[in-house]
């Protein structure tokens, strides 16, 4: 874990959007936010891998933030290298602190651990129904078929509404399927300032979960276009 920073006012605005972010937001209809502690290892890796897997779907927007991030911090070499290896692009990433405005604009929020999920909901309680850990969302959606995703997506009149229906479908599986043997199975281990082996283990947990999230989002977006 990163050392705790002096917490700023929760409603403080984060960094302004880049030109690329602004251009993307003009097209994107559904925003996915990934969250970890420092926004330099796990959440940017998840963001970058999801963006790479779904780059052909302009309806989706991906971003990340950290509960104790130092605005402008860069990714450690190990994290950047792992992102590159799995298809991500870490070159332009700069950390940003999670604020209420950032969280408020997200349609799906994926924390990297149960602690992040709790902090997210404490910051903005109305996001509870669209907040999961990354591995939790992957676990819950693993038994959701493409047909079920398409059916849920067909209930929405817009892309945003269609994906909201799909997120609700996944949330409805809580307590039904994909039980974990340990609560820690819903967490991605924090590799910050730890060994290369820990970075590898973190990626081994994160990447398959991101791939599963990407599957759900792809099927949902493509169904919403039909």
UniProtKB/TrEMBL annotation:
Residues 30-216 form the Phosphotyrosine protein phosphatase I domain. The active site is at 36 (nucleophile), 42, 146 (proton donor). Keywords: Hydrolase, Protein phosphatase. Transmembrane segments: none annotated. Signal peptide: none annotated. It holds the Pfam family LMWPc. One of its GO terms (molecular function) is protein tyrosine phosphatase activity. Belongs to the low molecular weight phosphotyrosine protein phosphatase family. This is Phosphotyrosine protein phosphatase I domain-containing protein. It comes from Cnuibacter physcomitrellae.
């Amino acid at each position: 874990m990163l050392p705790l920073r002096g917490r700023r006012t929760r409603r403080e605005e984060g960094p302004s959007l880049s030109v690329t972010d602004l251009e993307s937001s003009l097209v994107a209809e559904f925003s996915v936010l990934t969250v970890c502690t420092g926004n330099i290892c796990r959440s940017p890796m998840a963001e970058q891998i999801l963006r790479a897997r779904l780059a052909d779907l302009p309806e989706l927007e991906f971003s990340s933030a950290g509960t104790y991030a130092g605005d402008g911090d860069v990714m450690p070499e190990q994290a950047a290298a792992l992102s590159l290896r799995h298809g991500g692009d870490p070159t332009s990433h700069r950390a940003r602190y999670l604020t209420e405005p950032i969280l408020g604009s997200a349609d799906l929020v994926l924390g990297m651990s149960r602690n992040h999920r709790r902090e997210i909901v404490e910051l903005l309680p109305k996001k509870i129904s669209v907040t999961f850990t990354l591995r939790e969302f992957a676990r819950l959606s693993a038994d959701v078929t493409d047909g079920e995703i398409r059916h849920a997506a067909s209930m929405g009149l817009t892309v945003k509404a269609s994906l909201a229906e799909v997120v609700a479908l996944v949330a409805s599986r809580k307590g039904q399927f994909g039980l974990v043997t340990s609560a820690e199975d819903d967490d991605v281990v924090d590799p910050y300032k730890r060994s290369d082996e820990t970075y590898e283990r973190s990626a081994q947990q994160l990447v398959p979960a991101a791939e599963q999230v990407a599957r759900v989002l792809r099927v949902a977006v493509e169904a919403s276009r039909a």
